[in-house]
Specification:
alpha/beta, Trna Endonuclease, Chain: A, domain 1, 3 domains, 7 helices, 8 strands, rod-shaped
């Protein structure tokens, strides 16, 4: 930089040297030309102007030298600032190197944390899958429970306990979520929080396994209760069938006199239970009314409370009609009690309903 400044530095002359050169030039011109008297005054004024100009040039020269000194001082200050800036630059580069090293270490730590978070997320997914499987099994259990009646109160209580376990599991999952959020807010407590989450995960798996075991016990209880219900229903069905046969047997004894007294129908043969054209007919006999041959076809049920009972009788009558080729059929329903609405519908269809208290 000093060499460049030396190359561009201009050459300066003093005021005395400038005056000498001017007088030399004037003297030379004076020798070359002839000066007349009338031109002398003009030359004198010209010299006066030159002298004034020379003074101004001297002053400008001094100002220029002062500015050059100031510029040199500024150049020194600039060079000093550049040196300080270079030192600061080297310090900055050193600090950047340190920060880059710290950044690499931070990335390594973040990588380890990310791996741990992924492992936790995978464990969470496995837990959710188990919970979904348990929920599906629970829904199947509810379907089975829906097909049972009031006698399954004990099983319902077990189901409520299962719901409580699921609620406790849901609460545990919420706690895990809250711990997970806290771990994001404070990176310095992440390791401790991860350990707590891992412990909570183990407890959750234990609770899931306990719930699965309880679910198995519930399913076994349902299976046992279902078998018991099937057996009970079978026994009740047999008992109902026995009551039905008892009602029919009583009808065989009293029905002939009732039909004669109320409907003027004479039963020719005794009532029997038989099968006609593929249908079981529980009340069947030949009869007459005013010398007209009839067939009596009937069914018995302890309680008539549905129109389906009328439909079943129509099926039996159709089988008899198709087999014997006659429409002269007296339709009879025997019961202990008949709902008024069903009784009215039976009368509309010309069906004789005989209730046991009428015998």
């Amino acid at each position: 930089m000093d060499a460049a400044r030396q190359r561009t530095k201009p050459e300066y002359i003093t005021v005395e040297q400038l005056e000498e050169k001017v007088f030399f030039i004037v003297d030379k011109r004076m020798k070359d030309i002839l000066v007349y008297k009338e031109d002398f005054s003009e030359i004198k004024g010209l010299l006066k102007d030159i002298t004034s100009t020379m003074v101004e040039l001297g002053e400008a020269q001094r100002n220029t030298e002062q500015k050059m000194a100031e510029l040199a001082e500024a150049q020194k200050n600039t060079e000093q600032k550049m040196a300080e800036l270079g030192e600061a630059q080297r310090n900055t580069e050193a600090r950047l190197s340190e920060l880059a090293e710290e950044q690499r270490e931070s990335r390594k730590d973040i990588g380890r944390l990310d791996k741990t978070m992924q492992e936790l997320a995978e464990a969470q997914k496995n837990t959710e899958i188990k919970v979904s499987q348990l929920a599906e099994e629970q829904r199947e259990s509810r379907k089975d429970i829906g097909r049972l009646d009031k006698t399954m109160q004990e099983l319902t209580e077990l189901h409520k306990e299962s719901r409580k376990d699921i609620n406790r599991l849901d609460k545990t999952m919420q706690e895990l979520t809250e711990l997970h959020k806290e771990s994001r807010k404070d990176i310095n407590r992440l390791d401790k929080t991860m350990q707590e989450l891992a412990e909570a995960q183990k407890n959750t798996e234990i609770k899931v396994n306990e719930l699965a075991e309880q679910q198995k016990r519930t399913e076994r209880a349902i299976e046992t209760l279902t078998k018991t219900m099937i057996k009970t229903r079978s026994e009740l069905g047999g008992l109902g069938q026995s009551f039905g046969y008892a009602l029919e047997n009583e009808a065989y004894r009293v029905l002939p006199s009732y039909l004669k007294r109320v409907h003027n129908i004479d039963v020719v043969d005794r009532f029997i239970r038989t099968e006609i054209n593929g249908q079981e007919v529980n009340i069947f006999a030949r009869a007459k009314r005013a010398d007209k041959e009839l067939l009596v076809v009937g069914e018995s049920k302890t309680k008539l409370d549905s129109v389906d009972d009328l439909k079943k009788l129509r099926v039996k009558v159709k089988a008899v009609r198709d087999f014997y080729g006659t429409d002269d059929i007296v339709r009879v329903l025997i019961t202990h009690y008949c709902k008024p609405t069903i009784l009215n519908k039976a009368k509309e269809q010309d069906i004789i309903v005989v209730q046991s208290y009428e015998w």
